[in-house]
Design goal:
This is Oxidoreductase molybdopterin-binding domain-containing protein. The chain contains 13 helices and 10 strands. By secondary structure, it is of the alpha+beta class. It has 2 domains: 235 residues, no CATH class; 140 residues, Oxidoreductase, molybdopterin-binding domain (Sulfite Oxidase, Chain A, domain 2, Alpha-Beta Complex). The longest helix is centred in the middle third of the chain and has 33 residues.
Length: 465
């Protein structure tokens, strides 16, 4: 009998260490089983275990709700310029059938453009993290080899190119227009308009092709279960033919819950630093991304502006004592020329209306005082049912030096040639001595530094801006 002492037993591992080892072993086993189902492909750069049809489908579902709203509000924004009224309003010529939806823009409710454009710009910025996350989730598909395997595959790749390229183009040009007064080469209006139709067409084709698979992917995993799964228990999705699941996934450094939370937090932060420019009030101070600043000044004229008098090259002699308002009727052949004192002597009316800009910012309701456009039409022979009007400014630079307004805009009793705002004369930057203010019209259609009104005009000179 061997009486030599046996070696001391090894100390037992802690319970926590054993559980951690089991999780690592379980993860490796699942990855190994999945790898056996896939072709032998060398590890590539796209190894995140989060990638897969389910996460891609979650981001896609969010975009599927947001992008149609973005497209619809964009079309409404374009319609608000009344581009089919006059070529001088039409910054997107040769639109052809793409302008089928245009309709006379209403003046009721007076806040409609403020809401639709605020939603359009704010939603576009808020969706940026979701769009980037969606592109990250499908980036392996963009670099698959061979790039084209058949004619059908070539068409699919083309639609994907239009979808990704169109989406990036629309978001980039829109953000540049909002933040930097637009620095992209070419006119913003036609580029953004045509780009929206290309992107939306590619999106519709993509949805038609991928919606069944997206629905199956969303149903294949429980969202609540994923939101309860920590990083340590995060594993790749089962292998399939989508091309999204990595063949050789790396260990997880973030859970799907973390990825969704990170994207959601990014969108929330962008909302908080953007929405105040449209909502106004105290929230304006939170609008860190407001293109024209959170503090537009104080006093009666202390609300945002888009174009200063200096930027528009408004000369002092054009708005000084020699300023005259010319009111003309192209159909009645009557013409009236008024000094500023004579305009002030006409019946004055007030309107509480905001200013809303294509860039997404808007002011609260301002209290305007001036002469009704309908009363000015009556001076030149249109006492009832006044026609539309062609408005011209003294500004020497910039677009929208002149605009055409519809008859419904002229007839609205709140539509004014404003001389004062909030109890004070207009400041030079707000259009002194006179500007147009029309309910529900985009800011650039509320022409500043007005010097001529032509009622009933049927043809207009081409704007060379």
């Amino acid at each position: 009998m061997d009486s030599s002492p046996s070696p001391p037993p090894e100390p037992p591992a802690s319970r926590e260490g054993a559980e951690h080892a089991d999780r690592r072993t379980s993860f490796r086993a699942r990855v190994a089983r999945q790898a056996r189902r896939l072709p032998a492909v060398p590890p590539g750069p796209w190894r995140s275990p989060l990638r897969g049809p389910w996460l891609t489908s979650v981001f896609g579902a969010v975009l599927l709700v947001g992008l149609p709203v973005l497209f619809l509000t964009g079309l409404l924004s374009y319609a608000a310029y009344n581009p089919d009224l006059s070529r001088i309003n039409d910054k997107t010529p040769d639109k052809g059938l793409l302008g089928f939806f245009l309709f006379p823009w209403p003046t009721h409710p007076y806040w409609l453009y403020r809401v639709t454009q605020g939603v359009h710009v704010t939603l576009g910025i808020v969706l940026v993290p979701v769009l980037l996350a969606k592109l990250w989730s499908v980036v392996p598909k963009l670099f698959t080899l061979p790039p084209v395997r058949s004619a059908a595959h070539a068409l699919e790749r083309l639609s994907l190119l239009l979808l990704v390229g169109g989406g990036l183009f629309e978001f980039v040009t829109g953000i540049l227009n909002v933040q930097l007064d637009y620095v992209f080469p070419g006119s913003f209006y036609p580029l953004h308009f045509y780009g929206a139709w290309v992107f939306s067409g590619a999106l519709a084709a993509h949805v038609a092709l991928r919606l069944p698979r997206t629905v199956r992917s969303l149903r294949g995993r429980d969202l609540r279960a994923e939101l309860r799964t920590p990083t340590a228990r995060t594993v790749p999705e089962p292998a399939d033919d989508s091309g999204l699941v990595p063949a050789h996934p790396a260990p997880p450094t973030m859970s799907r819950r973390g990825a969704l939370g990170l994207v959601g937090l990014g969108s929330l932060v962008l909302f908080l630093v953007t929405a105040g420019q449209s909502i106004g009030g105290p929230l304006r101070r939170t609008a860190l991304l407001a293109p024209h600043g959170r503090n537009p000044g104080s006093g009666p004229n202390g609300f945002p502006i888009n174009k200063t008098a200096a930027l528009a090259r408004v000369r002092a002699q054009d708005v000084g004592e020699g300023w005259r308002l010319v009111v003309h009727s192209s159909t009645r052949g009557r013409r009236v020329e008024l000094t500023l004192d004579e305009v002030r002597a006409l019946a004055q009316h007030t309107s509480a209306l905001p200013i809303a800009c294509v860039e997404g910012w808007s002011s609260d309701d301002q209290h305007w005082e001036g002469v009704r456009l309908a009363d000015l039409a009556a001076l030149v022979g249109h006492p009832s049912d006044p026609p539309g009007v062609f408005v011209e400014s003294v500004q020497l630079a910039g677009s929208f030096r002149a605009v055409a307004l519809r008859d419904n805009q002229v007839r609205d009793p709140r539509a004014l040639l404003a001389l004062r705002v909030n109890g004070a004369d207009l400041s030079p930057d707000h259009g002194y001595p006179a500007r147009v203010i029309v309910p529900d019209a985009p800011g650039v259609m509320n022409t500043k530094w007005v010097h001529r009104l032509t009622f009933g005009a049927t043809t207009f000179p081409q704007d060379d801006a």
